[in-house]
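Module 6 notes. Inverse folding takes a fixed backbone as the condition and produces residue identities as the prediction. Think of it as a translation problem where the source language is geometry and the target language is the twenty amino acids. Below is one complete input and output pair. Work through it position by position during the lab.
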């Protein structure tokens, strides 16, 4: 106890504004992709568009089920990252890139029109068949 009393003068206390939870967050550095996403543990998260191509620091608590990622860039907090719902993003694609929508449009437009009539199929023209020779090559027989 006496030794603690001698070293107690060197103890420093944290500012009351400091959040202790923030001090123990995990950190991961990721590069923001062209579609404004970063990935962490197999999940995609959306960040600010201004960060495309930049390396950002993701701060998170790995023990929470609904994880909130803090996005930091150049030592400044930017915004929390939003989890990407890949199914919802699919509906925002242009019709030319969304194959299921394109197929539906094609199928529904063809459903009202009768199918195009195809010309009656004619038998293939017969070609002369090669004669199968069961004779052995005379040159080989002499040997």
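Target side of the pair, the amino acids:
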């Amino acid at each position: 106890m006496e030794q603690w009393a001698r070293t107690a003068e060197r103890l420093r206390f944290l500012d009351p504004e400091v959040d202790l939870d923030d001090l123990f967050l995990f950190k991961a550095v990721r590069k923001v992709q062209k579609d404004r996403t970063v990935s962490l543990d197999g999940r995609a998260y959306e960040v600010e568009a201004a960060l495309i191509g930049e390396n950002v620091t993701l701060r998170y608590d790995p023990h929470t089920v609904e994880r909130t990622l803090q996005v930091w860039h150049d030592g400044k907090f930017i915004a929390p990252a939003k989890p990407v719902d890949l199914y919802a993003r699919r509906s925002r694609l242009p019709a030319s890139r969304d194959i299921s929508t394109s197929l539906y449009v094609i199928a529904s437009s063809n459903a009202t029109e009768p199918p195009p009539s195809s010309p009656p199929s004619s038998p293939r023209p017969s070609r002369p068949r090669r004669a199968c020779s069961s004779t052995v090559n005379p040159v080989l027989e002499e040997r």
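Reference fact for the lab report: The two ends are 113 Å apart (CA to CA).
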